[in-house]
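Two proteins follow. First one:
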Amino acid sequence: MGQRGAGAPRALRGAPLIFRRRSRFAELVERQLDIFAEDERELLSDMERAERAYDTATRDDADEAYGNVQLLLDAGADRLADVRNAYAATLDEVVATTYEEAFLRGASKRFPRLIGLL
């Protein structure tokens, strides 16, 4: 009897390989997000500090600390949306939709806290 659960000892003949094709905008979006991170470094740092302050806030200070976090997250999401919208405006509607989907995928990996606000 053979081993169970060890998997196939070699690739199976005829087994299809599945390749995920990168979006045609993936490299562009990656560069745009790099530039965003550099340009908004101070805002991103402020967000992290505000979240830490909220995490350590007393019960009396929690509401104000949460409000500060939300203001900074809203500002970051607005600026991220500005990057997306500025480029999308240069594209026709169908291509813009493809770009926006690629941007959302990239941004959700890089800036997940901002995505829900886009």
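Second one, unrelated to the first:
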Amino acid sequence: MLDHTWSIVFKHGANCPYYKKDIINCLEKVQIMATKLMSNITHLPYNLRLQKLDLFTLEHRRVRGDLIETYKMCIVLNFSPQHQWE
């Protein structure tokens, strides 16, 4: 069963790192263009536009999301009912 599951996961095109990088770059370009729509900050560099809008880069948001998910998994492992009875 496990071998079959892994073959399904790796056959899916979205799991290919090359496609992920393309998607990430595409999303980052959309965010760059969206921040340029604000007429009063168009002349600023991308990082300063993000600061003015209280936004983060997509890379920062991905890392933050990974850390939050890791924290959730650690909390669940530490406080699971199984550990209370051991």
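SUMMARY FIELD: Helices lie at 2-11, 17-36, 46-52, 58-78, 81-84. The two ends are 31 Å apart (CA to CA).
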